[in-house]
Design a protein that fits this description.
The structure holds 2 protein chains of 2 kinds. Chain A is an alpha/beta fold. Chain A is built from 12 helices and 8 strands. Chain A has a single domain, classed as TIM Barrel. An 8-stranded parallel barrel of chain A has the order 1-2-3-4-5-6-7-8, surrounded by 8 helices. In chain A, strand 5, helix 8 and strand 6 form a beta-alpha-beta unit. In chain B, the strands form 4 sheets. Chain B has a 6-stranded mixed β-sheet with strand order 3-4-14-9-10-13, sandwiched between helices. A 4-stranded parallel β-sheet of chain B has the order 7-6-5-8, sandwiched between helices. In chain B, strands 1-2 form a two-stranded antiparallel sheet. The chains are: A alpha/beta, B alpha/beta. Chains A and B meet through helix 3, helix 5 and strand 5 of A and helix 2, helix 9 and strand 11 of B. The complex binds pyridoxal-5'-phosphate (PLP). Pyridoxal-5'-phosphate binds next to helix 6, helix 12 and helix 16 of chain B.
C-alpha cells in the first residue's frame, strides 16, 4: 500500500475527510517552501501538493502562473527542489505529492524522475498534461515504485471514460470541479454536487475535489460527497506578499491559519 | 530496429556531388544530400498519423483531461467531413472564389539571374486573400466549427497572418472571434492588428512570458479549457495535440497538390528541390506532404536562425533542440535541462516559436526532409533581393526560405528548378524592416 492509500484508509476508518493544500516550490524561495511544508503539516493537513514550477502551465490561472513565474525567475531548479524535499520530507507526516508537467518528467527521463522523486520522499504525482491515454508506460513504473500517479476526471469526461480513468488512478481521483483553469471562485458550479454523486457510484477510490475551492463554506458543501479537498490559488495568492523576514513570518502564519480553518470546516 | 538501419544503408547512392550550403546546419560537415533522400520502397508515410496521433514516436496528445472530449469530437467530425462530398465541394468553392486559388507558380527570373545558377520559382501563397497560406486552414476549420455546432472561435497569432485569416473566415461565416496575440507581436505587426479589428475580431494582447507566439498559444489553450463546450480553437499551424497536426496539414496540402500539377504542366516534370520556411510548420507541411511519396524530390525546411545559434537567440528547434513535450505534442523543442521552455528570438514574428509540428520531427528522423536555419540578417538580405529584383514584398517568414533557395540555386545549373513556397506577403513587415535595418546599420 502506498503512503497515499494509507492516509485514506485511516481517514475512512475515522469517517473523516482529507484537506490537501497546494503550494509552489520555490516561491519566493525554497526555504519558504520548506517552512510552509512543516507548518501545513503541523496544523494537520492530511496531504500536501507541491507544484513544480513550469514555464507553460496551460491548466493554471493567473495566480498559479504568476507564482510559477516568480519561482522560475528566482532561479528555482529541479535539483534544488529534490534536495529540499529530501531534507524536509522525513520531518513531515503528510505525504507530499508533486504536481508536475510531463514536459519536465520527460526531459528528466521517466526512470530518473521516479528515482529522484522517491529518493526525496515524494509519495506521488499529479501530471496535468498526461491524460490516461498517454500514461501507460509511466503508470506501470509508478505502480512498481509504490508511487501514486493520480489521474484527473473533469466535467467534460464522459461516463465511460470516467470509469476507465478511475480504474487507472492510484491513491485517489482528482475531480476537477469545473471545465476551466485553476483560480479562486466564489460560487461552486451548480452541477458539482450532482457530478460527484454520480462519480461516487462508479468507483471505490477516494475522490478529492480541486479547482476554484477557496472558502470554508465550500468545504461544508462538499464534505458529504467528497473524500477530500484541494486548495491552491487561495494559498498561493498569499505568497506574492513575501518580501522580507516580517512578511515571511506573517504569510506563514496566515497560510497556517487558513489551512486550520479549512480543516475545521471539513472535519 | 533492423528494418530501420537496413533502410539507411540501402539509401541510393548520391548521383550529384553534394555541395556546401552556406546556412548553418545541425552538423557543420553535413552538406545537402542532393540525391533522392529516402529509400525507394513505397512510402506509407501518407497514412500517418496513427490512431493515437503519432508520426513515428512524435505527436500524441499531452493535454489536460478537460480538452480530451473536444479533441475527440474534432477528430470524429473531421473524419465525417472528409467522407462528405458536400463539405469538400464547399471548401473547394471557397478556395477558388474567395481565396483566389489556385495560387500561381511564378518564375523569379531576375532573382535567378542575380544568383546565376538554377531557376528560382515561387509558389505564390502571398497572392491568396489575406496575404498568406493561413487562409487555407482557417476556412476549413471554420467549416468544421459550423459542423460541430460551435458558436465561438478563438485563435492565437504571431505575425498576425493567422489572426487575420481566422478573423476573415469568422466574418465570412458570422462567427464571433477572439484572437490572442503577444504584446511584442501586437507592436511589430500593427497592420494586421488593425485589419483584425476592422474584421470584427476581438484582440486579447498577451502580457505573460516573452509576449510572443508561445504565450499566445498558452492563453488560447487556457481560454479553451473554460469555453470548450461551445468554442472551437482554430489552431494556426501543424502543432498542438492530435488531431490538429493532421487537420492543418491536410487543409494546407492544397499547396503541394497544386504545385505538383502546375509543375507537370509547366515543366513536364517535378521541381529539382523544394524549399519552405518552418515556424510551426504549416506552409512547409502543406507543400511537402504531397511530395513525400515523390522520393526523387529533395525537400528542405528552413527554420529561424535569429541572431546566432546560442540559446535564446534563435527559434530553430529542429536544428538545435531536443525531443520534448510542448503545447500538447511530443516533438523537437527548445528547452533547458529541467524541461522549461527556452526563450526564442526571430525578427519574424511568425517563426518566433520554440516548438515545431511533430510530423516535421518525424520527417527529420526518417531523413525525408532536411532542416536548416537561416539568420535574421540573411532573411533581410533575401527580402531586399526579392523586393528590388521582382517587385514582390515577401513576408519576413518566407524570406528565410527564399534565402536558402538563392543559396541552393547558386550551386545548380540553369536547367534545374528550385521551388520556394512564398508563404505570405510582406506589407505587414514594412515598418519592422525599416526599424531592423537601422538596428543592423548601427
Ligand atoms: C507568411 C507566413 N509564413 C510562415 C509562417 C510560419 O508558420 P508555418 O510554419 O505554420 O507556416 C507564418 C506564420 O505566421 C506566416 O505568416
Amino acid at each position: 500500500m502506498s503512503a497515499v492509500d494509507e492516509v485514506f484508509v485511516r481517514l475512512r476508518a475515522d469517517g473523516k475527510k482529507a484537506f490537501m493544500p497546494f503550494i509552489t516550490a520555490g516561491d519566493p524561495d525554497l526555504e519558504f517552501t520548506a517552512d510552509c511544508l512543516r507548518a501545513l503539516d503541523a496544523v494537520g493537513c492530511h496531504l500536501i501538493e507541491l507544484g513544480i514550477p513550469y514555464s507553460d502551465p496551460i491548466a493554471d490561472g493567473p495566480t498559479i502562473q504568476a507564482s510559477y513565474t516568480r519561482a522560475l525567475n528566482a532561479g528555482t531548479r529541479l535539483d534544488a527542489i529534490f534536495e529540499m524535499v529530501g531534507r524536509v520530507s522525513s520531518e513531515v507526516k503528510a505525504p507530499i505529492i508533486s504536481m508536475v508537467s510531463y514536459a519536465i518528467i520527460f526531459r528528466l527521463g521517466i526512470d530518473e524522475f521516479l528515482r529522484r522523486a522517491t529518493a526525496a520522499g515524494l509519495s506521488g504525482a499529479i501530471v496535468p498534461d498526461l491524460p490516461v491515454d498517454e500514461s501507460e508506460q509511466f503508470a506501470a513504473k509508478c505502480e512498481d515504485a509504490d508511487f501514486s500517479l493520480i489521474q484527473l476526471i473533469t466535467p467534460t469526461t464522459s461516463g465511460d471514460r470516467a470509469v476507465q480513468i478511475a480504474k487507472k488512478s492510484m491513491g485517489f481521483i482528482y475531480y476537477v470541479s469545473i471545465a476551466g483553469i485553476t483560480g479562486e471562485r466564489k460560487e461552486l458550479p451548480p452541477e458539482l454536487i450532482e457530478n460527484l454523486t454520480s462519480l461516487r457510484k462508479m468507483t471505490e477510490l477516494p475522490i478529492c475535489v480541486g479547482f476554484g475551492i477557496s472558502q470554508p463554506i465550500h468545504a461544508e458543501l462538499l464534505k458529504p460527497v467528497a473524500d477530500g479537498l484541494i486548495v491552491g490559488s487561495a494559498i498561493v495568492r498569499r505568497m506574492a506578499d513575501v518580501k522580507d523576514d516580517v512578511s515571511r513570518t506573517r504569510t506563514l502564519k496566515e497560510i497556517s491559519e487558513f489551512a486550520s480553518t479549512m480543516i475545521q470546516a471539513i472535519d | 530496429m533492423f528494418g530501420e538501419s537496413a533502410q539507411q544503408e540501402l539509401r541510393p547512392p548520391v548521383t550529384r556531388p553534394a555541395k556546401e550550403f552556406l546556412v548553418s546546419s545541425r552538423s557543420d560537415t553535413l552538406a545537402f544530400d542532393l540525391s533522392s533522400s529516402f529509400s525507394s520502397q513505397p512510402s506509407s508515410d501518407s497514412q500517418l498519423p496513427d490512431a493515437k496521433g503519432r508520426f513515428g514516436k512524435f505527436g500524441g496528445r499531452f493535454v489536460p483531461e478537460t480538452l480530451v472530449a473536444a479533441l475527440d469530437q474534432l477528430q470524429s467530425e473531421y473524419e465525417k467531413a472528409q467522407g462528405d462530398p458536400e463539405f469538400q465541394n464547399r471548401l473547394d468553392a471557397l478556395l477558388k472564389d474567395f481565396v483566389g486559388r489556385p495560387s500561381p507558380l511564378y518564375f523569379a527570373k531576375r532573382l535567378s539571374d542575380l544568383c546565376g545558377g538554377a531557376q528560382i520559382w515561387f509558389k505564390r501563397e502571398d497572392l491568396n486573400h489575406t496575404g498568406s497560406h493561413k487562409i487555407n486552414n482557417t476556412l476549413g476549420q471554420a467549416l468544421l466549427t459550423l459542423r460541430m455546432g460551435k458558436s465561438r472561435v478563438i485563435a492565437e497569432t504571431g505575425a498576425g497572418q493567422h489572426g487575420v485569416a481566422t478573423a476573415t473566415a469568422c466574418a465570412h461565416f458570422g462567427i464571433p472571434c477572439v484572437v490572442y496575440m503577444g504584446e511584442e507581436d501586437v507592436r511589430r505587426q500593427q497592420p494586421n492588428v488593425q485589419s483584425m479589428k476592422l474584421l470584427g475580431a476581438e484582440i486579447h494582447p498577451v502580457t505573460t512570458g516573452s509576449r510572443t507566439l508561445r504565450d499566445a498559444v498558452n492563453e488560447a489553450m487556457r481560454d479553451w479549457m473554460s469555453s470548450v463546450v461551445d468554442t472551437h480553437y482554430i489552431l494556426g499551424s501543424v502543432v498542438g495535440p492530435h488531431p490538429f497536426p493532421k487537420i492543418v496539414r491536410d487543409f494546407q496540402s492544397v499547396i503541394g497538390r497544386e504545385t505538383i500539377n502546375q509543375s507537370k504542366d509547366r515543366f513536364g516534370r517535378l521541381p529539382d528541390i523544394v524549399v519552405a520556411c518552418v515556424g510551426g510548420g504549416s506552409n512547409a507541411a502543406g507543400m511537402f506532404y504531397p511530395f513525400v511519396a515523390e522520393t526523387d524530390v529533395p525537400l528542405v525546411g528552413i527554420e529561424a536562425g535569429g541572431r546566432n545559434s546560442s540559446a535564446g537567440n534563435h527559434a530553430s528547434p529542429l536544428t538545435y533542440g531536443e525531443p520534448g513535450v510542448l503545447h500538447g505534442s511530443f516533438s523537437y523543442v527548445l528547452q533547458d535541462d529541467d524541461g522549461q521552455t527556452q526563450d526564442v528570438h526571430s525578427a519574424s514574428a511568425g517563426l518566433d516559436y520554440p516548438g515545431v509540428g511533430p510530423e516535421h520531427s518525424y520527417w527529420m528522423s526518417t531523413g525525408r526532409v532536411q532542416y536548416r536555419s537561416c539568420t535574421d540578417a540573411q532573411a533581410l538580405q533575401a527580402f531586399d533581393a526579392v523586393a528590388t529584383q521582382e517587385g514582390i514584398l515577401p513576408a519576413l517568414e518566407s524570406s528565410h526560405a527564399v534565402f536558402a533557395a538563392m543559396e541552393i540555386a547558386r550551386s545548380r545549373t540553369p536547367d534545374e528548378i528550385v521551388l520556394v513556397c512564398l508563404s505570405g506577403r510582406g506589407d505587414k513587415d514594412a515598418a519592422e524592416i525599416q526599424r531592423l535595418k537601422k538596428e543592423f546599420d548601427k
